[in-house]
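Take a look at the protein record below and flag anything odd:
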Amino acid sequence: MNTSLILQNVLTPPVLFFFLGGLAVLLKSDLEIPSPLPKLFSLYLLLAIGFKGGLELNESGFGGPVLPTVVAAIFMSLLIPLICFFILRIKLNVFNSAAIAAAYGSISAVTFITAESFLYSQNIPFDGFMVAALAIMESPAIIVGLLLVKLAAPKERPVERTMKWREILHESMLNGSVYLLLGSLIIGFLTGAFNPSAIAKMEPFTGNLFYGVECFFLLDMGIVAAQRLPGLKKAGSFLICFAVGMPVFNALIGVLVARALDLGPGNALLFVVLCASASYLAVPTAMRMTVPEAKSSYYISTTLGLTFPFNIVVGIPVYMGLVNRLIPSIN
């Protein structure tokens, strides 16, 4: 393990603000972020990263590694929930296994953004088209999770809880985060292609403000993550081990896929982070609506209380070490 990379990551402002938020809860401070602001920060980060990704996608085009990377991202978002489901079924019922599997097959945009900040701090270049992979990996995992429930527990559910395909597709593909991220990506692409003079006007909003908003958002995430820690007791030791071990396992698969795609170090890390992260926003919302039999304390406390902090504090530099070690072309 490269301890110097971990130390450098921990000492960046966004991660330090995350610790500050968590420490506030542990010290019983009255620090809190008013409820409308975290949602606004989240929307801003999605808009900014989508817009910048669209601009870079316009510059790079769709050739080279772009389409293979996007296809591989879809493949991983289908594969990971299946692997997670069969592991979780060792201890949990169908409903909890499917809900948690969907969360771990999906992605965390904030973890992705934190990985980008890490790459900036290390002066490691990466391409904007990776945002397209980010945008497309959320929906397939939700669909797989709901399909697992539909196929594995058809006789255990009341008829009125049977899901309709139209509802499944709508919830997975048109939830707010996916819609805004894809929409911003398209707007950025169109702006770069047809109205490049407008890029400079957007720069103060999507560029200069970004790092500060990320710090503010991670301050709130530190508070929320620390508040979720008591829920881990209910999850039990099996899920606690899963919440740490599964991201590392998924990261190893992601590194091998990134190696096969011949991705550079920056793009490889972002791809690995997408494979290793877990959704604590879109998937829990979808699962609460469509799989009420699953315990929300399981899939929220594991993803937000443990996997998210693990990834942004320790995971990202560890995954960078894996990339450097297992992909010869970047040594």
The mean pLDDT is 87. Residues 102 and 142 are 5 Å apart (CA to CA).
